[in-house]
């Protein structure tokens, strides 16, 4: 198999994040700490993962970072927007995710990341209101201002290439409408402040118009619309999303494929969370929660395929709740009650209490997406990158196919894409003597 032509990862890679809150500052601190030898980037495929090549007898399992040409941690530079003016050091202290001693040790690096004024509309995030925003003008003007920010950051930072990862808040629930159907309609909507264009869409438009890869880490509709998919193809920009797969949904995409593989039935799955950070506060608004709920609820249906297994999963009752609880901070707790049944229909139960750290689980996703999207751009891969579905609760996908939610199939697709790019045989599991 011929190796694909991939431009070298030379020079600096600029990572731009709308949002400089808990997730972004935890990501930044992790990169800075790893550079200084103060911590390890656990949870990151690009930094810690390996990939098997060829037959098992060949014993070839290089690190992913040694197999495909990725930017190194020392080559990364950072920019952000936020509706609050705090630099990354102050924001990290307020977020309270990391030990203050570590934040203090990284003060110089974190303080250097200062947010640009954000694009904000309180109709889409009702629980927040910050002073550091772009005011006046139409949405088109704001998109142009973001594009100027992007160019200015690139010049000031010396970045050779850029990616943008949405790390901002969950917006109120939106469904695709006529203004989202074509690029022409969308740009007309920007010029006339169409009420169905959310701030995250303005960021996505600015990035894609500049030819910059864009990933959406929230469940917002954002770039998951035909207009912006059209723009991504036009400018050759890779596109991925949506909603980082971190806590409770990560567990579902691990457990549900196992139940299905063993044909264990499910009658009910009740999930509830308590969370006290800014994300929890935003999700305390029912309209923002609706966006998150849609992202979380779809996972089981796609994995279990009740239309193919009606006796096992056709009557599944699936409920998700998120409760804002300030004392818990960023340390989310997720409870799951799972009612299952097996041979002859006999019932059983599984209980899960997952005490997780939301931003700790999200930070390596931001890093991996930035590096892999940059790889995709240098490899000439444009539009939706389904091979990155591994990282998302509600992965965007080609319109003519259903999304893949099974974590293990997603990982196989990701690694097979890397094998394909480097001219290695993909792993097919055909049962040949020396294959898994």
**CATH C-level label of the largest domain:** Alpha Beta
What does the overall shape look like? globular
CATH topology of the largest domain: Rossmann fold
Largest sheet: 7 strands, parallel
Given the helix and strand composition, which structural class is it?
A: alpha/beta
Strand order of the largest sheet: 3-2-1-4-5-6-11
The overall strand count is 11
Oligomer: single chain
Number of helices: 16
* Cα gyration radius (Å): 21 Å
Give the H and E element order.
EHHHEHHHEHEHHEHEHEHHHEEEHEH
CATH superfamily of the largest domain: NAD(P)-binding Rossmann-like Domain
Proportion of residues in extended strands: 15-25%
Give a verbal description of the structure.
This protein has 436 residues and is α/β, with parallel strands linked by helices. The protein folds into two domains: 13-244 and 359-421, 3-Layer(aba) Sandwich (Rossmann fold), CATH 3.40.50; 248-355, Dihydrodipicolinate Reductase, domain 2 (2-Layer Sandwich), CATH 3.30.360. It contains 16 helices and eleven strands. α8 (183-191) crosses α10 (226-235). The longest helix has 21 residues, at 358-378. It is globular, with a radius of gyration of 21 Å. It starts with 12 loop residues before the first strand and ends in a 15-residue tail after the last helix. The mean pLDDT is 93.
